[in-house]
Specification:
Chain lengths: 389, 264
């Protein structure tokens, strides 16, 4: 099936070359970081995780969201999603790979990374995170490839794949729950020490992931001969709506607890992010952009007339994605470190090399995504054509 | 030479057994040699849980703090980058407000507001840093010290996020050019690993008290928390002490005597 990725239009190859070039530039900057150390980034002893870990956290959510198309199709026989389950599964694969790359570029001693396997430590949440992420990558590769291959041969998928599909449905929430536990189990980090962290992670995952899928489905419809279907896109729109509402509701719960209880330590990170603290407020514009985009997207999503309008839905999906990227890919991590354990404000901002490495990882992810989607859409399109004859 | 299958098997079998026996013997001999090399010094100081009491009544001048910090940082090859972004510190000071957040109030005496408080790893009995480390690079030794293995650490910095005391530093770049005078008795670190106070485990092994304690003129009291007759236990029986963020349940092993009006 892989041969489908090796033949394509000029536009396809140009796009791949652009992504490969960006990925290459990122790699060069990574080599510089490898040589100099993580001091090349904006990180410090006060804010010791930043952009890289933020991207990792956000992308675990995007990966987990595949379950939002897989579950309705396989458990509820929701046929409309038959055309896009593969898009969900094939989005999960590069997302998990990006997660792994972001963890890798964040390591101080990347050559020792196999110590995680050499000295397995079940009491560490990071150990479990490597287990669930690796497992999820394997499940999506296996299920996605096997089902697509059967479709290409125009036969029913083999029976043995069913247990793996059901396992992947249970597995998806686990990857984001475990990722939330990285943060929610740490004493002394007020912003993260909240029981609804995993619930918030799932809500934001199940809105940002399907939002990206809406945009990708629209791009596919425009640039390939495969149409994921208007009804599938509308169904995704409803999923995004409900989970985005849940997401904003959960955020409100956090604000209530922090501010009605009046406990200063719980309020400080929110104040730092949204109003600035002790004269420092580098993230304030970003966080307000995130909040305004969230409200704006909900106005478009909740209102049926705009949600059913595909152009408005595309705008809403982009707003959801950007809003949650700012909130989770950036604010969530920094808010855990500012103020620091001494209740002092020491700020963080990513450096240029750090940003280029980050863009390089995203380009690598989109390179893999493009190749996988090229294979999937070509197979789907060919099967569709032969069915017509 | 012609050889039938039976002879071949016999010869190979005997050879294998001889080889394995030889290997086993060799291993035992080397193991013993290595063990002899690392056997405990008879002078070594032992404890079930090392602990420290910081008696702030005995810190009078700026010099009293500088002396202990320099002692620690020079003996442990702690680099000085001269900027807060790359900063590495094992022992340092901060105000009461920042050392004990939430305990401050607006009507505090001036001496308390201005007081510098020595801060270091608390060597918690229930350490979150040890719990989160995915490779056991940070671990508890039987004497209660929270240790750091610079050669196993992968630099993920989960321990830095987990420590509620900001006790851990990361080598954001090669520290060696920033060490004023290298002490060859203690390892320098490489970039990309986490480090922190080790309660001078290398000095305890030689029968010496921690460098800071030695330089403190009695302001730092060090001993075994599990020994009812130790000096730390005697002081704890007598004085009112507090610990940083005790409510988090990490069970710090560093206690503070803030003192009262005698500090005026």
């Amino acid at each position: 099936m892989f041969e489908k990725a090796l033949e394509g239009s000029k536009r396809y190859w140009t796009w791949l070359i652009i992504l490969a070039a960006i990925s290459g530039i990122g790699t060069l900057y990574y080599l510089k970081q490898f040589q100099y150390g993580l001091g090349l980034t904006g990180l410090s002893r006060d804010v010791s995780w930043g952009l890289y870990i933020g991207q990792f956290t956000f992308l675990v959510g995007v990966a987990a969201s595949a379950v939002m198309v897989v579950l309705p199709y396989y458990l509820h026989n929701y046929k409309v999603f038959g055309r896009i389950t593969i898009l969900g599964e094939f989005l999960a694969i590069p997302s998990v790979i990006m997660c792994m790359l972001f963890i890798f570029v964040d390591m101080g001693q990347p050559t020792r990374i196999l110590n995680v396997l050499l000295h397995p430590t079940p009491r560490s949440v990071l150990f479990w995170d490597s287990v669930v992420l690796g497992g999820y990558l394997f499940l999506n590769l296996l299920v996605g490839w096997t089902v697509l291959h059967a479709e290409k041969k125009e036969i029913a998928p083999p029976k043995w794949i069913k247990p793996f599909i059901y396992l992947s449905i249970i597995w998806a929430p686990s990857i984001h729950t475990v990722t939330a536990f990285i943060y929610a189990g740490l004493p002394g980090r007020h912003f993260w020490l909240t029981a609804i962290m995993a619930a918030r992670f799932l809500a934001s995952a199940f809105s940002s992931g399907p939002a990206l899928l809406i945009i990708l489905a629209m791009i596919i419809r425009r640039y390939t001969k495969f149409d994921p279907g208007k009804e599938a896109i509308q169904a995704l729109g409803k999923i995004v709506t409900y989970f985005m509402l849940t997401n904003v509701f959960f955020m409100g719960l956090e604000l209530f607890t922090a501010f009605y209880s009046g406990i200063p330590g719980h309020q400080h990170p929110f104040k730092y992010l949204f109003t600035g603290l002790e004269g420092h407020g580098r993230l304030v514009p970003l966080m307000w952009t995130s909040a305004i985009l969230a409200i704006f997207s909900l106005i478009l999503l909740v209102n049926p007339s705009t949600r059913k309008n595909e152009r408005a839905l595309a705008v809403a999906a982009a707003a959801v994605f950007i809003s949650l990227w700012l909130e989770k890919g950036f604010g969530l991590i920094i808010g855990g470190f500012v103020p620091n354990p001494f209740e002092k404000v020491f700020e963080y901002w990513p450096t240029a090399p750090e940003t280029i490495i980050t863009i390089g990882v995203w380009a690598t992810g989109f390179l893999i995504l493009t190749i996988l989607y090229k294979i999937a859409t070509t197979v789907k399109q060919e099967v569709g054509e032969s069915a017509h004859h | 030479m012609k050889m039938n299958r039976r002879d071949f098997l016999k010869l190979t079998g005997t050879g294998t057994i001889l080889g394995l026996a030889g290997l086993g013997l060799f291993e035992r001999v080397t193991e013993e040699a290595i063990a002899a090399q690392f056997s405990k010094d008879v002078k070594a100081l032992n404890a079930r849980r090392w602990a420290m009491i910081v008696d702030l009544r005995k810190f009078k001048t700026e010099e009293d703090y500088k002396r202990i910090i320099n002692a620690c940082h020079s003996v442990h090859n702690v680099p000085d980058f001269g900027n807060p972004k790359d900063e590495i510190k094992w022992l340092w000071t901060d105000t009461y407000e920042h050392s004990f957040p939430g305990q401050e109030h607006e009507f505090m005496p001036e001496w308390l507001e201005k007081m510098s408080i020595p801060l270091l790893c608390n060597h918690c009995a229930n350490p979150p840093c040890v719990r989160v480390c995915p490779v056991k690079a940070t671990f508890k030794s039987p004497d209660g010290i929270t240790q750091q293995d610079y050669h196993r650490c992968i630099g993920c910095r989960f321990c830095m996020a987990a420590c509620p005391f900001g006790a851990r530093s990361f080598n954001w770049r090669d520290p060696r050019p920033f060490i004023k005078k290298t002490n060859n008795e203690f390892p320098t670190r490489t970039k990309g690993v986490v480090e922190k106070c080790n309660f001078c485990t290398e000095r305890l092994a030689k029968g010496l008290k921690p460098a800071c304690v030695e330089e403190s003129n009695g302001a730092l009291i060090f001993g075994d928390l599990m020994d009812p007759d130790s000096e730390v236990r005697q002081v704890l029986r007598k004085e009112f002490t507090i610990r940083r963020k005790a409510e988090l349940g990490t069970q710090p092993s560093v206690f503070y005597i803030i003192g009262g009006s005698e500090n005026v």
